[in-house]
Specification:
29% of the residues lie in helices and 18% in strands. It is of the alpha/beta class and 506 residues long. Strands 1, 2, 3, 4, 5, 6, 17 and 18 form an 8-stranded mixed β-sheet that branches. Strands 7-16-8-9-12 form a 5-stranded parallel β-sheet, with no helix packed on it. A 3-stranded antiparallel β-sheet has the order 13-14-15, with no helix packed on it. Belongs to the FAD-binding monooxygenase family.
């Protein structure tokens, strides 16, 4: 028999654990967190590649309700972030709610019983409300390359690093120049015999203002919480001031480009290599990367930069789109994730018997980034158009947790077997507004092809405003944007022929 819960949360990264904490703080204890892996942590569990670290300052990349005065560096590495999430799990008593090794195979809305039916790897569940917190950086994207299956050496994605492979002394090819690749390259360069970087598009890279946080600072942050809050506030405020350049006046990013070019000139003296590493699009169009050791690593004698994407694999030979051929013993992909076509969308079926993937076939869209038309009592954490290009996603997550809390309060006030489903008109109006604002942003006008855009060139990923604005628009649920569904009344006698029993929409 299926276990019934008030709320089922899918995923145990920052979004899922944040939702669990907020549920407990709201007095909701009848919930489970369904996790497909055998441990919590989301992307910070999966990404264990050499050099893995966050590009958002530690004191901003943490929950406001769970500050950590003991961050060791300005930009913390993967082990410290994962340890932080484990500590949050224990501090807020989340272990009893975890259901590990419980990948959600399907979630289907039952209109008659007014609840979700979930089939998982560990059994069946039913839930009044489902919170999808799988996150956009959870399913790696591997390009389809002819001959890849016949490559004789190890092949793996940065988010599925094979620690059983010893790269020392080997010829290693890295495909991609995103946030993971620029950390992997300097981490493995000293130990491999040859490193070839396949660069389809160069990245804009700024200096990384990283340093060890002193013992005095940590003591002060622990003993005087106001200093910790001031540090977080300063980091937040600086990034809020930058938003206008990204979303309204990309021409103002010229100064930042100059800083990035100077950073490149200082590290790379070879004009030919420097030319290959210089982007031809506006800075910010793709995510700006931070590194002090990426460029120096590319200048080492055992590193080659192929300014072209990998096009074909012939045995141990790798052939670039420009015809360059190199030999490799191991192949590492830093090619990103399935952001605009999240696999979970194929597994969720709404009130009309249509999957979320089918609903989103023309582009992802959700009211306030959180609810979708046709999917009652389903909320997303880090949903469509909630991504950031310059600040901490934890700020966006906490805003959506406010919305989740008010959503549950509204259901309690309405009483009975009730559901709320976003009106198509409200979703469409919200999405039109987002896309209209997106037209002038650097992500749409900067002249690049990025993971912010879907296959049709629509930006269904980024948020075109400040985090403070998003906090305001998700503070409360506006019932005018929703239809209320109630459990169908079951007559004591047989209904007349031709009359069906459906949920009443008001």
């Amino acid at each position: 028999m299926a276990e019934h819960v008030r709320v089922a949360v899918i995923g145990s990264g920052f979004g899922g654990l944040g939702a669990a904490v907020r549920l407990r703080r709201e007095g909701v204890t009848d919930f489970v967190v369904l996790e497909r892996a055998d441990a919590i942590g989301g992307t910070w569990r999966d990404n264990t590649y050499p050099g893995c670290a966050c590009d958002v300052p530690s004191h901003l990349y943490s929950f406001s309700f769970a500050p950590n005065p003991e961050w060791p560096r300005n930009f913390s590495g993967q082990p410290h972030i994962r340890a932080y999430l484990e500590r949050v799990t224990d501090t807020y008593g989340l272990r009893p709610h975890l259901r590990l090794n419980s990948e959600v195979r399907s979630a289907r809305w039952d209109a008659e019983r007014m609840r979700w039916e979930l089939d998982t790897a560990s059994g069946a569940y039913t839930a009044d409300v489902v919170v999808s917190a799988t996150g956009p950086l959870s399913d790696p994207r591997l390009p389809e390359i002819p001959g890849l299956d016949a490559f004789p050496g190890p092949v793996f994605h940065s988010a599925r690093w094979d620690h059983g492979v010893d790269l020392r002394g080997k010829r290693v090819a890295v495909v991609g120049t995103g946030a993971s690749a620029i950390q992997i390259v300097p981490a493995i360069q000293p130990e491999v015999s040859r490193l070839t970087l396949f660069q389809r598009t160069p990245a804009w890279v700024l200096p990384r203002a990283d340093r060890r946080i002193t013992g005095v600072e940590r003591w002060l942050h622990g003993k005087v919480p106001a200093t910790r809050a001031a540090r977080r506030g300063m980091l937040w405020g600086i990034r809020e001031l930058q938003v206008g350049a990204f979303t309204k006046r990309p021409d103002r990013l010229g100064f930042v480009e100059a800083v990035a070019k100077a950073h490149l000139r200082r590290a790379v003296k070879d004009p030919e290599l420097r030319a290959r590493l210089t982007p031809d699009y506006r800075i910010g169009c793709k995510r700006i990367l931070l590194s002090n050791d990426y460029y120096p690593a590319l200048t080492r004698a055992n590193v080659d930069v192929v300014a072209s994407g990998l096009a074909e694999v012939r045995g141990s030979g790798l052939v670039a789109a420009d015809g360059t051929r190199v030999e490799a013993d191991a192949l590492v992909f830093g090619t990103g994730f399935r952001v605009t076509d999240m696999p979970i969308a194929r597994r969720i079926t709404g009130a009309d018997g249509v999957t979320l993937a089918e609903t989103w076939k023309d582009g992802m869209a959700a009211l306030r980034g959180t609810t979708a038309a046709g999917f009652p009592n389903l909320l997303f954490i880090i949903g469509p158009n909630t991504g950031l290009g310059n600040s901490s996603m934890i700020l966006m997550i906490e805003s959506q947790l406010n919305y989740l809390a008010d959503f549950l309060r509204q259901l309690d006030v309405l009483g009975g077997r009730t559901a709320l489903v976003a009106r198509p008109s409200a979703v469409n109006a919200w999405n039109r507004g987002i896309q209209r604002r997106m037209e002038r942003t650097v992500w749409n006008t900067g002249g690049c092809d990025s993971w912010y855009l879907d296959s049709e060139g629509r930006n269904t990923t980024a948020w075109p405003g400040t985090t403070a604005e998003f906090r305001r628009v998700t503070r409360r649920v506006d019932l005018q944007e929703y239809q209320m569904l109630r459990e169908p009344r079951r007559p004591r006698t047989q209904a007349p022929a031709g009359l069906g029993e459906g949920a009443v929409a008001r």
